[in-house]
Amino acid sequence: MGDMEAYAIISGTMLFVSLILATALAIAWRSLGRPRHALSWSIAYLMYGGEVLFQIIEALKPASNAVLAPIELVFVLAPGTLVAIGARQRANLPPRHRLFVIATVAALCIGDLPYAFPGRFAWTSMVAGSFTTIMLGVAIAAILPRGRKAQPAEWATIAALAIFAMFEMMMVIADGVQQTSKTVPDHDKLFVTIYLVALTPVFVTNGMAAILLLASDLAAKLRTLAVNDPLTGVLNRRGFHEAALRAVSNGRRQHQSITACIADIDHFKSINDRFGHTAGDNTLKYICDRLTEGLRGGDLVGRVGGEEFAMLLVNSSAEQAAEAMERIRADIAAGYAEDGAPTPVTASFGVAPVAFGTTSPEQMLLDAFDQADRALYRSKVDGRNRTSIAA
Predict the structure, then answer these.
(1) 347-353 β-sheet, strand order
(2) What is the mean pLDDT of residues 76-104?
């Protein structure tokens, strides 16, 4: 099989694969809540398909190269730009559309110079490869997580993008060797050989990595929805219970003091009745914000009832926990405004230490919150807006 036949087969395969990946990503965008980055990546693969189509036409009708090649460069540069923009969209970073458009247009103008001055320049593919490599680097930087460990799908996508960037640089080097060594036999075949051998697996790997990343993001979102309260963002009853069991088991193993706390909004029903359920929802969010800000990073907070919240303070005695609850209680009572009008709100707290013994973590947790609930009841009986420690 000659190079042209192999080139035609590879190009046809790439056209088919690019359309399949573009369709798969478009379906993912439509089915997974319309994440913007899925649409950007879908359009990128669609434009990759356009690039391959141009190449097929040029191979069949070489005379059209002078007309189509400058236009084709748009389809060469735009996919890399869209991949970078999509990665930044996924990371909730500013897409910088204007900056990316300016960079793409600049690369397009530089890359099209050989067609304005035939025979004097030969850097079009080198410019395209270098530009795509830079865009892939931008995408890798955006996918690298900030403040947390990377998930396996993120590492896989980063690896796929890095391989793609290395492939582009190999193409740039091969093209440079070809341009500077035309008198040396076989150098002109280096570019085509790399293209034929490496393009398809690199291309497919990146498409599959993108789809895997979207699936992983969806799974993470579903896990979050399963254990977090959708209104306030803190743990729900199930999520809090699972995290609290792990904390108690770890605390017993490391001999750390752990304290259970319960908070309940005072007269919450009257807030809903007087100001409406929107004000009630905002009050719940406000309380959660105060609780979260008043606790340390390793402490737990969850919404375990309509207006009831549970907390677990790690490496903290009952007295220390009560002091923390008092600070939070005072912060809550300082005031809350809804649409500019003050809506007074207070909360009552109950505190109880987790007693480590021979029982299971489940039972220890149950006993501690049972005592904390009794302490909360005493706070209510004594006039509300106060903190009580279990006797």
Answers:
(1) 300-303, 308-314, 258-265, 347-353, 387-389
(2) 91
Average pLDDT of every residue of the chain:
85
Determine the average pLDDT of the residues in 332-353.
Answer: 81
Options 3.30.70.270, 2.130.10.10, 3.40.50.300, 1.10.150.20; CATH of 237-389? 3.30.70.270
Determine the Cα–Cα distance for residues 57 and 171; give it in Å rounded to an integer: 21
**61-65, 104-108, 177-181, 259-263 — which is least confidently predicted?**
61-65
Please report the pLDDT score of residue 190 as a whole number: 58
Q: Which long-range contacts (CB under 8 A, 24 or more apart) does 87-95 make?
A: 87/37, 87/138, 87/139, 87/140, 87/142, 87/143, 88/138, 88/139, 88/142, 89/35, 89/36, 89/37, 89/40, 90/35, 90/37, 90/142, 90/143, 90/213, 90/217, 91/142, 91/143, 91/145, 91/146, 93/142
3-state secondary structure of 263: strand
User: Catalytic annotation on 72?
Assistant: no
pTM here is 0.70
Among residues 168, 307, 308, 362, the one annotated as catalytic is 307
In CATH, which of 1.20.1070, 2.60.40, 3.20.20, 3.40.50 is domain 3-227? 1.20.1070
Helix (H) or strand (E) holding 145: none
Reported as a single tens digit per residue, the pLDDT across 173-199 is 877 776 666 554 454 455 556 666 677
